[in-house]
Structures are given as C-alpha cells and as structure tokens.
Specification:
620 residues; alpha+beta; 6-stranded antiparallel sheet; 17 strands; 44% helix; globular
C-alpha cells in the first residue's frame, strides 16, 4: 500500500522533477517506509514517484518505481493484488523470471505479456501507472470497485498530473479553485461524488477504467462491467446459493490475509465486522488474530458487549479504546487535517485506525460493503417505498413539488416532495442530505448549479443498467455512490493518514456481480438480517450479534456539539464571514438543530467543509 504520483508533459521544464518530488513528499503519510522519484523520458517529459508502505516482500528488491529489465517499462503501484501468485505462476510458465516476491513485479510483467488486457486478470485493490518505454505511452488503471483512489489534472498547456490524493496535486501547479460541481454533489450527499473533487478540473479516474496518454492525447476505457445478463434462476436452490457465496467469501478473506507484516481486524460487534473475523478464524484456525474496537461510555452508542462476545467466540486478542469527548476535542484538528476530500463521515475510521496502528499493526480487515451488498439496512426498504410513491405521484406537476419542498417541516415530507421535482431514480432522493431549496438558502447564489448538470456526469450511465429486481438495482446504486464516494474514500484517507492499510474483503467485484445476478428472494429473509453473510460466517458469529437492533458505528455527536465542540460550532454557524455561505441560512440551520428538526450530520458536514476549504486555501 502506497502513494503514487506522476507528471506527463510535452514540453520539458527544469522544474518538473522538483514538482514530482513535491507531490511524493505530500504523500509521505501513505508510505513512510521508502520513496523514490524517476525521470523516465524527455520527449515527452515524464516523471513518476512513489511512497512505500511495505506489506508484501519487505526487501529492497520490491522497492518502487520498479523497472522491467527486459523492456525498460516502469511501474508505480498503490494497492494489493490478491491473486498475484496465480498470475505469477502463469507468467513463469511463459518464461518470465522474477527478482522479487512482490505483486508489483507481477503487474509489470503482466503488462509486458498482455498489454492493456493485463488489468482484466487482476483481482484486488489497486491504482497504478506504467510507462511503456518503447511506445512512449503512459497507462494508468484503477480497480473494479474503486477501493483505491487515483486523481488527475490536465492543464491547457498539455501538462498532465496524477496522484493518489488531491493534496499531492495541490502541492504543485494545480489552481486551488472550488469546483461548483463538486460542491453541489457534496451538499446533496455529504461527500464529493465521483468523478468530481472539491477542486475545479481535478477529477477521479472512474472505477474499472484505465486511461492512456500518448502524444499528449488522453483516452479512457472501461475494462470491466458487471455481467447482468446471466441472471441466476429462481429455480436455483437456496443451498446452492449459500454454498457459492460462502465459498467466494472464504476465498476473498483467505487471499486478503496474505501479509509480511502484522495484520488485524476492525471489530465493532455488528454483523459485517463480526463475519469478517469469523471468516478469518475459519481461514487460519491457529493464527494469532488481533481485533480492535472503539467503545463509548454512553450506553446507546456502546457495542462492547457484542465485540467482546465475537472476540471470545473466535479467540482473538482484543483491544478497546474508550473514546471520550475530551479525546475527540484533543485530536480534532489532526483528524480534520486527514481529510483529502471533505466528508460527513470518516471520523470513526480515523480513531480506530489510530488505535490499530499504535498497537503495532500495519494491515487491518474491515467489514465495509456488508450493508450495501447483503441488503443490510432500512435504506433498501425506504428506497423501495419511495419508488412506489414516485410512480403514483408521476402525474403531479413539478411546481407543486417545489411548493411542497419549501414548506416541508420534516425530512419525510422533503423526500416526498423530491419525488415530484426530480426525474432521477428515487434511490438518490432517499440518499439526499439537503434539498435544492435548502441548498439555495445555505449557499450564496454565485456557487449554485442546476442539479442535473453534475448528476448526469456522475450517475447518468449507471441509471441505464438493467437488473433482475429493484433490490439489486439499489445495491448497485449504493456501490457506485454512497459506498464509493463516502465509505471507501473515507476508509482510504483516514486509515492511510496513520500509514495503515485497510482491506475490504466484502468489496470484491466477483462477489458483487454474483449478488447483482441473484433474485431478491435469495437475499431477503424475514427472520435473519443479511442471511447470506450470516450463513457464511457460521458459528463464529453469535446469535446475539445477529438479532440485536441495527446500530451503525457512529459517535455521540449530539453530546459533543453541546459540550466539547460547542464553542467552535457556535463560532462557525453564528459568526461565519465566509463568502461561500449565506450567514442567515447557517444561523437558521443551527437553530433548527437545537430544536431537534435537523440531524447532527447536517451540522457536521458543513463544519468539515469550511475547515477543509480554509486548510487547503481554496479560492472562493
């Protein structure tokens, strides 16, 4: 796991190598074990660099940038390839000889053997760039589910920059101008929706895509799409489905426990993280498993009884951190500084990652994706209900919905009004944080954009996919929006802030594809939540953890806002002079929060946004 960066420019510059080094230095937290920068070509002028967090093959032979001695091709790579040993054997049978034991070298030779098609063989989490010396061609790819980030910026002068984080791009020539599209998406969903960022003209390479740069021209190619045509028959037995899913989950967890450094797992006590721990124990019955949890002294947020139960059942060495409001206040600045992109989530991951890393662990497995793929929360039922209402209300003129939105006094009415005014699938209305009317009251007019402009670029393509049923469709939307732009990005940026690699075994493109082909009846159970995942976890998942009330891994923010963080929030919401926000709108939102008609999440996301803009000196 690492940070990568690079520059491609048609015209040489005496400062290009120095800028490459600046970008790599900005990524130091992602890979403190080693770093390197190489000038690869002068026509065009190409520089690549990498910071290394050593996970597989700790020897110098595995360091990057890595050069293919036969072709002169060079790779910088961030991530892990879980099937690299299988690919290595195939390459060895074809005559390749390896110097290291790393997955990096496997990708490099796979490119030599199969060219661009090498990416179709990879199973893992990755973003990498390969410079083809002979063809003078830069090849950049990102994994199928978008677990690992890759950002890029192209100047009109022909200069092209890429990096694992936006902050690395800001370390060089990228103008710090706010993106109206990124801002609009953030205000709608609490995180910047891909492919946008909060910086104008900085974009994310979409998941399952590669980009090629030759002679200054950029081409994008989608190399993987889920196979939705081969739907699984309703006549298939439940036993066969259970067996298939269990096999895929065990294989995913087993392959992701390969590491040359200490490895552990997040364990909240919920079904997802508990299932991962159980599958880890099944994979390695005698291993010394380490698990980690954040606990609270507020009983309504505390899950320690369940995480301890899972730890005992699976014989793990369990470590807890009881987090207090004073601790949150003490580390708040450090945590906020770790946001590469602002988000309403992520603080929980920052603290548990800090705990894990300080305990001597470099790799941790997480249960991210359990809800999104295994139908784990009320969002599915709400989205289904909203879709029915949307069909019934299609005859109502949109102006009536706009009027209704303006007078709506609670979240439910706002979502219903959105069904009338928005042409988009009801799922996206269910996920919205602020409505158009609310955004107009919070932002100054110069920063407003029409809703559809950015939405079509983010989600126009995925809205065209056809699914076996509405449940699979919602799951797919979840994976391409909330999971991609919030959960996975927050997991990456907050764990890598501590030089910790987090692996997500449930976010496997083969598992996702199978589940999207599967009819609803196999995934939904009136008796057991996330039945397929629970079945695969087996005896390592106690019944008490399965049948308890659903509880997300969130902090007691309401308490923090009234006590430890109150002064900072009051200053922002009641005294802000930012040209971005409408001060009256901010003050009204703060009053509504105190009356209990607005969730803490709305307050927190705007506070994080303002902090991020000031920290990164973004032009407004």
């Amino acid at each position: 796991m690492c940070g990568i960066a690079g520059i491609y420019t048609i015209t040489n510059s005496s400062t290009t190598e120095a800028r490459g080094k600046k970008m790599v230095n900005a990524l130091y937290h992602r890979g403190p074990d080693d770093n390197g920068v190489l000038v690869l070509s002068d026509k065009p002028f190409v520089v690549v660099g990498q910071t290394r967090l050593s996970i597989i093959d700790l020897r110098p032979e595995a360091r990057q940038p890595m050069i293919d001695p036969n072709t002169g091709n060079v790779i910088v790579f961030n991530g892990e390839i879980y099937n690299f040993q299988e690919i290595r054997k195939e390459l060895e049978n074809n005559g390749y000889r390896f110097i290291s034991r790393s997955d990096t070298e496997v990708i490099l030779y796979a490119y030599s053997e199969w060219g661009e098609n090498c990416v179709k063989k990879l199973r893992g989490i990755f973003a990498f760039a390969i410079w083809d010396k002979k063809e003078k061609y830069l090849f950049i790819a990102r994994d199928q589910m978008g677990v690992k980030p890759l950002y890029y910026y192209k100047m009109q002068s022909g200069q092209f920059f890429f990096a694992s984080e936006v902050r690395a791009l800001l370390a060089v020539d990228v103008p710090r101008v706010i993106s109206k599209e990124g801002l609009a998406s953030f205000m709608n969903y609490g995180s910047v929706q891909e492919p946008f960022t909060m910086i104008e003209n900085v974009f994310s390479l979409p998941p399952a895509h590669f980009m090629s740069i030759k002679d200054g021209k950029i081409k994008f190619t989608r190399y993987w799409s889920p196979d939705l045509a081969n739907q699984i028959s309703n006549e298939t037995s439940q036993e066969e489905v259970n067996e298939n899913i269990t096999g895929m989950l065990r294989d995913s967890v087993f392959s992701q426990m390969v590491s040359d450094v200490p490895l552990g797992a997040f364990l909240s006590g919920g079904i997802d993280s508990s299932a991962i721990v159980s599958l880890m124990r099944q994979s390695f019955p005698d291993a010394d498993l380490r698990t980690f949890a954040i606990v609270f002294d507020q009983s309504e947020y505390d899950e320690r009884i369940y995480s301890r139960m899972v730890s005992e059942q699976n014989h793990t060495r369990h470590t807890e951190l009881e987090l207090t409001g004073e601790m949150v206040k003490q580390y708040l600045k450090d945590a906020l500084d770790s946001f590469d992109q602002p988000s309403m989530d992520g603080l929980n991951t920052w603290f548990v990652s800090k705990l894990v890393k300080e305990s001597g662990i470099t790799v941790a497995l997480s249960g991210v994706g359990g809800d999104e793929f295994f139908v784990g929360y009320s969002g599915f039922s709400k989205a289904l209900l909203l879709e029915k209402w949307k069909q019934r209300m299609s005859v109502i003129p949109s102006f009536l919905g706009t009027c209704m939105e303006r007078v709506a006094f609670n979240e439910r009415l706002r979502k219903v009004s959105g069904l009338i005014t928005s042409p988009n699938p009801s799922y996206f209305g269910n996920r919205r944080v602020f409505t158009d009317w609310q955004i107009q009251g919070l932002l100054n007019k110069k920063y407003l954009l029409p809703y559809q402009d950015w939405f079509i670029r983010s989600y126009g393509e995925i809205c065209e996919y056809s699914f076996v049923d509405e449940i699979s469709r919602i799951s797919f939307f979840e994976s391409q929006s909330y999971m991609l732009s919030t959960l996975l990005r927050d997991t990456d940026q907050m764990s890598m802030a501590h030089s910790l690699e987090v692996r997500v075994p449930l976010v496997d493109h083969r598992i996702a594809e199978y589940l999207w082909q599967l009819p609803e009846k196999f995934k939904m159970s009136s008796d057991i939540p996330k039945a397929l995942l629970v079945n695969a976890a087996g005896q390592g998942l106690p019944d008490a953890c399965v049948f308890r009330k659903k509880q997300g891994f969130v902090f007691p923010f309401d308490k923090y806002f009234k006590e430890e963080l109150g002064d900072e929030l009051v200053t922002f919401f009641c005294s802000s002079s930012s040209s971005l926000f409408n001060s009256k709108g901010l003050h009204l939102l703060w009053e509504k929060y105190h009356r209990g008609s607005v969730s803490w999440s709305r307050i927190w996301m705007l506070f994080v946004l303002q902090y991020w803009l000031l920290k990164n000196r973004v032009e407004l």
